Amino acid sequence: MARKRKRQSPPQEDVKIKDFLDMIAPGIIKFNTDHFLCGNTYRCVWVLREYPTATEEQAILRHLGEKDGVTLRIYTRQVTAAEEKKIIHNAANKNRMDKSNTNDLQQTVTAESNLQDVVTLVSSMHRNREPLLHCAVFLELTAHDPDALKLLQTDVLTELVRSKLNVDRLMLRQREGFLAVGPAGYNVFASQFERVLPASSVANLYPFNYSGKTDPRGFYLGRDKFGSNIIADFDKRDDDKTNANVLILGNSGQGKSYLLKLILCNILESGKSVLCLDPEHEYVELAENLGGCFIDLMSGRYRINPLEPKTWDEGGSPEDTDAPQAFRQSTKLSQHISFLKDFFR
């Protein structure tokens, strides 16, 4: 009799559960000369190496912080007292030596300007009790294809040139740049790209700032040019708001009428009355929708003459203490005189 052959079961594969690092790790990482591939994206890392001596602009990197595909990583560490003294001493001596060179006029002028910057820095630190910080700024640019990455590089470089900032593209050092901009990364380059800056200048590198106006019982008006909210209370007196007068200036089409309508609506919502002079009939629809009264004085049908005697109350009595003074007079002339006293008061 033929023996029955046993069916061979297929070898079972070992089931392995991926851990968290395996799940978040990219499928591929390849570093090239000036960029690298991370998963399905093309990336590159730059680092700032030159900063403007002085600037009036606030949050100079805010345009990059708001741009899609750009990540900023800022490293800071405080300068010790010994380092601070040594840095200032070396900078002063170097600029004095360059200033004494009579052969190169350009070098002499540059050294004199740098020495003046050192004097300004020291005086500002002494006056404001401002520390010095080692600062390094890295930029990571991300795109889905090489052409989009080049276009993003051009846009970022344009913004940096406008802010008088210069970058190092980290040629052949993209791996070190990748380690520096990661969420759990560190400054691989140490002090190579660090610059010593005052604390106020370092704070100006962060891509956000606050410059709005927030009153406790105010109403929302909009945003300023830095993106901060403006919540104003015209009845509150402060150092920058000594009265309730408002002046709106702007070119045609910038929203002056819209802002005024917004203010009028908020004033009406607060329970106050509004009297608006409208020579161009821009607020007719607003007045009708809010239950107001629109009077066209140019039609000749209505007149406003405070000197014209009017009868305010035919049954006026001096004993009615709750009524206004003009309503308590008995004759038309007496009522009119009392009204004029209140009108011109």
List keywords for this structure.
345 residues, alpha+beta, seven-stranded antiparallel β-sheet, three-stranded mixed β-sheet
Notes on the protein architecture:
The model has no long low-confidence stretch (mean pLDDT 84). Among the domains are: 130 residues; 41 residues, no CATH class. It has 345 residues and is α+β, with helices and mostly antiparallel strands. Strands 1, 2, 3, 4, 5, 6 and 7 form a 7-stranded antiparallel β-sheet that branches. A 3-stranded mixed β-sheet has the order 8-10-9. The longest helix has 24 residues. 33% of the residues lie in helices and 16% in strands. The radius of gyration is 36 Å and the shape is extended.
The main sheet comes to: 7 strands, antiparallel
Fraction in helix: 25-40%
Which stretches are poorly predicted, pLDDT < 50 over at least 5 residues?
none
Q: Distance between the terminal alpha carbons, to the nearest Å?
A: 131 Å
Q: What gyration radius follows from the Cα positions, in whole Å?
A: 36 Å
* Structural class designation: alpha+beta
Number of distinct beta strands: 10
Binned strand content: 15-25%
- Shape descriptor reads extended
In DSSP terms, counting alpha (H) and pi (I) runs of 4 or more, how many helices?
10
Mean pLDDT: 84
N-to-C order of helices and strands: HEEEHEHHEHEHEHEEEHHH
